[in-house]
Amino acid sequence: MTKSRIRSYTGPALAQIAFPLGGIGTGTVSLGGRGNLQDWEIWNQPNKGGNLNMTFLALRAKPKSGEAVGKILEREYLPPFTGGGGGGFPRNALAGVSRFKEVVFRGEYPFAWIEFQDREMPVKVTLEAFNPFIPMNVADSSIPGAILRYTITNTQKQPVEVSLLAVMQNPVGIPSTEPGQKPIEEQLNAYREGDDLRGVFFSSPAVDWKDAFFGTGALTTDWTDTDVQTHLYRGGWFDAAHVLWDEFTATGRLTPVHEHVHGQPLDPNRPKLLGDSGAICLRVRLRPGESQTLPVFVHWHFPHVKLWAGDKATLCRTQVANQFADAWDAARYTVKKLPRLDAETRRRHATLFESSLPAPVLDAVSSQMSIIRTNTVLRLSDGNIYAWEGCADKVGCCYGNCTHVWNYEQALAFLFPSLERTMRRIDFGPNMKANGFMTFRCDVPSGGVNSDGWVFHACVDGQMGNVRAPPVTQEK
Predict the structure, then answer these.
(1) Cα distances (angstroms) measured from residue 248 to each of 167, 189, 258, 283
(2) Alpha helices in 429-475 (DSSP H)
(3) How far apart (Å, rounded) are the C-alpha atoms in residues 394 and 179?
(4) CA–CA separation, 93 and 88 (whole Å)
(5) Distance set, CA 291 to CA 124, 156, 295, 335 (Å)
(6) What is the CATH number of domain 11-346?
(7) Which of 294, 305, 384, 398 is deepest in the core (most CB within 10 A)?
(8) Would you tell me how many other CB atoms lie within 10 Å of the CB of residue 382?
(9) What average pLDDT score do residues 220-226 get?
(10) Distance between CA atoms of 320 and 395, rounded to whole angstroms?
């Protein structure tokens, strides 16, 4: 029995890849085909094309008797060379900084692998990115975060000093599209260390706890030899990026900054700083032929959402608010349980990808499972799944667990049957009238307007699709 191999991608095809990393009902950040983090959709709404400013990873390698080489851990930009708007790339994209000549991307959901290629770099670099995805285990498949593991191999005949830089903008309150929402005036980046973690904890005292964009974020690692900056250099124009890159490439370190600082400038005459970035720098010395894996964790926690009715929508509490106290709590849990989470996710992955199914079938089946973890699906604190029919770039399309869409899908029923049952309970509960009429869109929260007043057509394929034998799969 020969294992079918999923194809790899390189060159122009990389521009069309966005691999979602996140938990069930928590939103995602996507790993782009070039190795970049893109499409930040962590605020419980679609946000294709939305990026965090001054957010990237980079590598510096210095042989004992050679020059240091520093590059952003992405493939070079692919055409068209535009960054949105009329001004080209934004300054904080560091578009002019050296990147890797080429990468090779391979995805077998929930794992993505990237091989970085560049003759100037004296080490070999690969990335493995994933988030736990364990059928029958809803909680551990709902962690709001991304695990990035960069494996560095010394290909030289002499020792090499390696530094891995991760920079992330404070994501709280960005992007706020709430009607009447004021710009975020203050963000708080705090240094934290404990429970084998160290890094930057992001929050904002300027965002009201009732706001849908209230929450926290965390950029962390469990690597011991790590420098942390809660904020970058405070200057004007390009100073922050310039000082950061010069220090990193010259020394392979960051000057530690552990202040619990607010996003405000030193000069009161300049506007307040929005979206202050924090950074961590992991260091290791590799002997000839030695390899080491450097881990970076990105987590987020946004406990409220407004669904389906625009500015008239009810503010609802998300399930992630029940599961974790904040983003740091989610990161702490991830690191503490990572050996088990990793092993169980790989076992599930092997069950599918080591089968004799043809590669196109494996690719199609596995990629479709990722939809469960996009903003098409959201889980509220009542434990129920609420879903759109699908999502456009910035908005969900066709609300309400539409029965003539969601009775056809099979992933929830066979991978996470307890979540499938929440949809069916809504259909046979508040969505069903005394005469057997079943509304094909539910309200949020369940049991609201639709259960009493909605009199649109029952939708035959939706209603009859609910009359079927349940799956035999049983959870532990």
Answers:
(1) 12, 20, 17, 11
(2) 449-453, 460-465
(3) 15
(4) 10
(5) 9, 12, 13, 21
(6) 2.70.98
(7) 305
(8) 16
(9) 98
(10) 21
Phi and psi at residue 58, in whole multiples of 5°?
-145, 160
Angstrom distance (rounded) from CA 198 to CA 150: 17
Where on the phi/psi map is residue 469: left (φ > 0), alpha (ψ -120 to 50), or beta?
beta
The mean pLDDT of 135-148, rounded to a whole number, is 98
Q: Give residue-wise pLDDT tens across range 181-209.
A: 444 557 889 999 998 999 999 999 888 88
Triad 85, 88, 92: Cα angle to 5°? 100
Q: Which tokens hold the place of 253?
A: 């370190």
CB 299 within 8 A of CB 218: yes
Q: Residue 412 corresponds to which amino acid?
A: L
Q: At what angle do helices 359-369 and 327-353 cross, to 10 degrees?
A: 160
Instruction: Name the token pair of 436.
Output: 């057997």
- Bridge partners, 220 (sequence order): 199, 297
- For 14, the 3-state DSSP assignment is helix
CB atoms within 10 A of CB 351: 10
Query: In the numeric block, which tokens belong to residue 144?
Result: 């709001």
- Let me know if 200 is exposed, middle or buried by CB neighbors in 10 A (0-12, 13-18, 19+): buried
Contact 328, 192 (CB under 8 A): yes
What sign results for the dihedral spanned by CA atoms 329, 33, 150, 162?
A: negative
Joined together, the tokens standing for residue 246 give 């010069």
Query: How far from chain centre, in Å, is Cα 466?
Result: 33
Percent of the chain clearing pLDDT 70 (strictly above) = 88
Written as six digits, the tokens of 1 are 């029995």
Measured in whole angstroms, the distance separating CA 206 from the mean position of its chain's CA atoms is: 24
CATH 2.70.98 boundaries in the chain: 11-346
Determine the Cα–Cα distance for residues 10 and 117; give it in Å rounded to an integer: 11
Task: Look at 438 and 101; give whichever has higher pLDDT.
Answer: 101
What b-and-e string marks burial along 417-452, b requiring 16 or more CB atoms within 10 Å of the CB?
bebbbbbbebbeebbbeeeeebbbbbbbbbeeebbe
Map 341-391 to HEC letters.
HHHHHHHHHHHHHCCCCCHHHHHHHHHHHHHHHCCCEEEECCCCEEECCEE
Please state the φ and ψ torsions of residue 33, each to the nearest 5 degrees.
-60, -25
Write down the pLDDT at residue 272.
41
> How is residue 332 written in tokens?
């702490």
Per-residue b or e along 45-73, where b marks 16 or more CB atoms closer than 10 Å to that residue's CB: bbbeebbbbbbbbbbbbbbeeeebbbbbb
